[in-house]
Amino acid sequence: MEGRFSWQVGPLLVEPVQPEDDLCYSVKDPSIVFHQGRWHLFCTVRGQKRTHQIEYLSFTDWKEANQARRVRLQNHAGFFCAPQVFYFTPHKKWYLICQASDPAWNPKYGAAFATTENMADPASWSGLRLLGAKPADGKAGLDFWIICDDKHAHLFFTTLDGRMWREQTRLEDFPHGWSEPVLAIQADIFEAGHVYRLRGMQKYLALIEAQGGHGWRYYKAYLADQLEGPWRPLADSRDKAFASMKNVRHIGQRWTDCISHGELLRCGVDERLEVDPNHLRFLFQGVLDRERAGKPYGQIPWRLGLLEPIPRDAPPVF
Predict the structure, then answer these.
(1) What angle do CA 125, 35, 110 make, to 5 degrees?
(2) What DSSP character marks residue 294?
């Protein structure tokens, strides 16, 4: 049946590293690309003294990920988190998209971006600047996500009220010139809406985090023939989800009871965000229910792991 997914989750891959001057609660919100023989991972770290920062690590083998050197980006002194990283071919630069705030900005919070010509050098990123995204129905949004087609860059974000929005700008105007937001999807969805092009198919896949399924957090999936939509349900219910505790098998010691904010491993690094529909892999944040019980959200000990298709199961039909 269309949209039936089955996964296995392996061992815990990335845990927070404790800096000398702070207490780090979690590592979360991963964005990852494979470039020049190495994985390059950007993620949010939540701390006691500084609540939201972006951390970078790089490795060649997933078994080495947790031992990789961690570097906190120094291109913004305030709140910044929920990164997305890709190579924007027209500018021949890497872009970091995130949500951030700064007292000197107007507005003080919004979608922000930084650039570099060398993603592997965490000190090379430019300072953050506002992207110029427009609020939707008076709400600034969060978990900003950019994907491009042949003519436009499209910016997706959610507003924590069951709605995902889209804005666009011409490729030649990127990263500015955003249109007024239009409603992309309205459903029982929450946050972390990420969109990809399915390689070899004229289709796009939207993955959006939801709440209260099989597991506290889980993921739904939608399909469209173009980034403008319309988006049709693929795996969008509690019992037929993209990824939840109902269709995930644990290999080894269980370390999570939910599937939260994550990213598909891409085929390339550029702005098209292509993924292989026959071998989807999903890097996500997870936590055990007993480890989050009684804690405020900022102190939940999120960790990172990888969903992979169960061997011998047929790939999903899109």
Answers:
(1) 40
(2) T
Q: Is the pLDDT of residue 316 over 90?
A: no
Sequence-distant (6+) residues with CB within 8 A of 50 are 22
Q: What is the pLDDT of residue 317?
A: 74
* Nearest residue to 196 (alpha-carbon basis) of 156, 237, 241, 244: 156
User: Residue 173 CB: number of other CB atoms within 10 A?
Assistant: 12
Q: Residue 316 carries which DSSP code?
A: P
Which residue shows structure tokens 């890097």?
283
State how far the Cα of 225 lies from the Cα of 318, in Å rounded to an integer.
11
Please answer whether residues 30 and 263 qualify as being in contact, where contact means their C-beta atoms are separated by less than 8 angstroms.
yes
User: What value, to the nearest 5°, has the Cα angle with vertex 119 and ends 116 and 122?
Assistant: 90
Q: What is the Cβ-side half-sphere exposure of residue 226, based on CA atoms within 13 angstroms?
A: 5
* Single-letter amino acid code for the residue at 71: V
Terminal CA-CA length for the chain? 10
Which run of H or E residues covers position 288? none
Alpha-carbon distance of 90 to 267, in angstroms, equals: 19
H-helix or E-strand spanning residue 142? strand 142-148
The rounded Cα 166 to chain-centroid distance in angstroms is 16
Give the pLDDT confidence of 158-177 residue by residue, as tens digits: 999 999 999 999 999 999 99
Cis amide prior to 175 (ω within 30 degrees): yes
Q: How confident is the model at residue 1 (pLDDT cuts 50, 70, 90)?
A: very low
Confidence check: pLDDT of 2 > 80: no
Closest by CA position to 192, among listed 46, 13, 43: 43
Tokens of 184: 């992309």
Rounded to whole angstroms, the Cα distance separating 235 from 237 reads: 6
DSSP-assigned letters across all residues of 47-81: ESSS--EEEEEEESSGGGGGGSPPEE--S-SS-EE
Sign of the Cα torsion 116, 93, 46, 157 reads: positive
Measured in degrees and rounded to the nearest 5, phi and psi for residue 172 equal: -70, -15
